[in-house]
Amino acid sequence: MRALAIGATGMEAQQLNVEVISNNIANLSTTGFKSSRAEFQDLLYQNMRSVGSASSDTGTILPSGLQVGLGVQPAATYRINGQGNLTVTNNPLDIAINGGGYFQVQLPDGTTAYTRDGALQLNATGQLVNADGFLILPNITVPATATAVTVNPSGQVLASIAGQTNQQTLGQLQLAGFINPTGLNAIGNNLLRETQASGTPITGNPQTSQFGSLVQGSLETSNVDIVSQISDLISAQRAYEMNSRVISTADQMLQTTNQMKT
Amino acid sequence: MESPSLVLLSNQEALQRAMDIVANNVANASTSGFKREGIEFDTLLSRPAPDETLDFVVDRATYRDVSNGPISPTGNPLDIAIQGAGYIPVQTAQGTRYTRAGTFQLNTDGQLTTLAGDVVLGDGDQPISVPSTTTEINISADGFVTARVDKGASLAQLGKLSVVKFDNEQALQAQGRGLYATEQQPQPAAGSGIVQGALEQSNVEPVVEITQMIQIMRSYEQAVNLLGQENVRLDNAISTLSKTTV
């Protein structure tokens, strides 16, 4: 009886669904987090009588066939790249991206990762780094004598230096964009990596081309919509129960078969 | 003499397959664009003797319930739901296939594809390419895909999604992965619209499936009980008849 195996595929799928939803809820307060969705596809079909096959020598054909589907499979978990809300933190090194684009982060192994998390800090030598201490590219060094740092919407970083009247330009923050940002590979720590599916990064200044503007003193919250997550969780749980009901019904049918008198 | 058992056996086999169909419906309760399937029973008439008619059960066909599933918003600009009848053609390695699962993505060439990476065919079987500098993408109800290709630029038309329908929708063969295959000629589906940022959920209704499941199980039990009674009847017949003859 296929129903047992089909029910099992359904339960596995709903389990994955609950896992994705719980990760979204767990990251409700994670800066720059994008919620994910599990997407499913039907599995193969077994053709027991093919539709359109000849049903007689005179050329009549079957108007419909007998097809039995073999269950469900997870197709993808994809990120919904909608903008999160901006919250004001008043920390001068908290920078939110309002619009498209990612900050570029240099990983210790020399490769580049991408993030929407703009909670930046300075390291011991005054370089702009992310929360893990990885360099932000292109790198900007803030001199120790700087009294205030300003980041304007188009990404220029300026500093007021003690004893100087004019602000000094420290550098230009750049953003990276991808043709298919959904194809980026999440590696944890709010970082994403380029893949073949995402395409190669296109870098540019904020407020140009597809890139958004930078907002100093703000952070982008996660774009998790808690109400829809909870309602998705409820329906996933019910779907899980229904699949287990399928398995127990199939089991009961088999049990009935076993009790047949000979 | 064995006929009642054989009729019941045909019933049991058909019920097992019906259960498989229900199981597949329930398993796909969260599959975008999935259409629930039903099974059709028929009687297979046989005349073992001129004065005797026996109705065996055969499951002749499965049919697809092509009614629309509920449309739920996802907020993803590349998620598309078809409102009304019709399918979107996609280019697969096996040839053109049709789908109602509108979870689209972009590939590295910027072309609109399905989750499996099959290129979506727009009007005139042309793929729809989205330039990398696009900041905003809009899909109108009649399928026109427009994009703001650069900040401040006006909306540029990238292509048009085509929604097609077929004379005989039941003859579409489900291929899995939300794809259908057919030899029929596609025709434009007039009156069907596209909703951007939403997906069509599966049209499986839990109550219907659970009710069906109960019904199938009880029928199955009934068949087994009948079989048991038939067995007792035969036993009795043998013992009673053997007594009278002695």
Overview of the structural elements:
The complex is a heterodimer of chains A (262) and B (246). Chain A has 262 residues and is of the alpha+beta class. Chain A folds into two domains: 2-52 and 61-81 and 224-258, no CATH class; 86-220, no CATH class. Chain A has helices spanning 2-26, 226-258, and strands at 36-42, 45-49, 66-69, 72-79, 86-88, 95-98, 102-106, 112-115, 121-122, 128-129, 135-137, 146-151, 156-161, 168-172, 175-177, 185-188, 191-193, 202-204, 213-216, 218-220. In chain A, the strands form eight sheets. In chain A, strands 7, 8, 11, 15 and 18 form a five-stranded antiparallel β-sheet that branches. Chain A has a three-stranded antiparallel β-sheet with strand order 12-13-14, with no helix packed on it. In chain A, helix 1 (2-26) packs antiparallel against helix 2 (226-258). The mean pLDDT of chain A is 89. In chain B, a hairpin with a 2-residue loop joins strand 5 and strand 6. The relative contact order of chain B is 0.19. Chain B has 246 residues and is α+β, with helices and mostly antiparallel strands. The longest helix of chain B has 40 residues, at 206-245. Chain B has helices at residues 3-27, 206-245, and strands spanning 37-46, 54-64, 71-73, 80-83, 88-92, 95-99, 105-106, 112-113, 119-120, 136-139, 144-148, 155-160, 164-165, 173-176, 179-181, 187-188, 193-196, 198-200. Chain B is elongated, with a radius of gyration of 26 Å. Chain B contains two helices and 18 strands. In chain B, the strands form seven sheets. Chain B has a five-stranded antiparallel β-sheet, with no helix packed on it. A three-stranded antiparallel β-sheet of chain B has the order 10-11-12, with no helix packed on it. Chain B has a two-stranded antiparallel ribbon with strand order 1-2. Chain B has two domains: 3-66 and 204-245, no CATH class; 71-200, no CATH class. At the A-B interface, helix 1, strand 1, strand 2, strand 3 and strand 4 of A face helix 1, strand 1, strand 2, strand 7 and strand 14 of B.
